[in-house]
Amino acid sequence: MDKTISGQFDEEEFYKSLNETDTTDMESSDYEKHGWSTQRKRRKRMASTSPLNDNTLLNTPSPLPIHPSVKGNDYLLVLQSVDPNTKLSTQNQIKIQKILLETVGTPKRIKPLNSGKILVECIDKSQWKQLKRVKLIGELQIRTSVPKSVTSSIGVIYNVPLDINVEDEDIVSVLKAQKVRNFFEKRATIVSASIPKYVSGIDGCTTQAFPGATIGRLTELISSGKVDLISLDFVIVHVGTNNISSSQSVDTIISYFGDLIHKLKKMTFAKLIFTSILPRPVDHMKTGAKVNKVNTELKRLCKRNNLLYCNLYRSFLLDNIPDSSLFAPRDGLHLNFAGTELFRKKIINIIKHQSI
């Protein structure tokens, strides 16, 4: 590569070196050896000669893992405490190893991480599956996850023109076909009772619905680790419909919302977004005023806690009464296909206008 550094570019040698990079690890010393200015010149040469199309090459260097990984081993799991204030890596490691021995057998390796988590390398797939189901280590509630270094890698896309718009739909479709994830994709989850349980098809967003759940029950589910809050940018909460039909006062319902907010703030660093309770066609004449009062107080509560509140209530009204075309006639409470689609579009709009 001396010719390149001296200003005499050998195209054949350059492409050969690129191909070699694809099959070998890219160490930090390689970057030091070839100056950043030289790399920039190379990229400009590549960009000026080839537009992005279906044949665009994605040359991905070796993974830059967030967690340490073991080359050639897929039986890795990261263990972390459900309580964000408790770090597994600072607990008694001998005791943890003994508990794992009694639960799943002796793993191949246990490594505490600086993040407060523990990386466990299992001896085989059977042990890996067993450990993935473990929810307790002693008295500590834990959750398990697959290290990102196993499921993804970070790399550079070459051959991309300098004036390209990464949000162009054609370009996004090409990249998705080659399994490239948009770095700026927002990750969100809808945590709710059963109202939006059929909401799906939102990029980067999942729905975790718990039919029949009240605000208090949802708080319990979050406390026990039944709700996945890992690696999220936004948590969208829609709950309270089942509290309206009870004899609970508005103040009591808002106190439950306060407990839920407190628990969520302890369990996740994601931005919290609360949506209003929807009208209830089944008993609107009886509960309409109560729903409005709860929504008004919930909005104030969100403001006091610096949380985003989104009012969906009016979108489900027609001439100031619940729009029957959006609700299932069977029970006059849950959403039908049209109502689910409207809810879905509202959530897409919420996520779209939020910054990470």
From TrEMBL:
Residues 47-61 have a biased composition (Polar residues). Signal peptide: none annotated. Residues 1-64 are annotated as: Disordered. Residues 207-341 form the SGNH hydrolase-type esterase domain. It comes from the Eukaryota. This is SGNH hydrolase-type esterase domain-containing protein. Gene3D superfamilies: SGNH hydrolase.
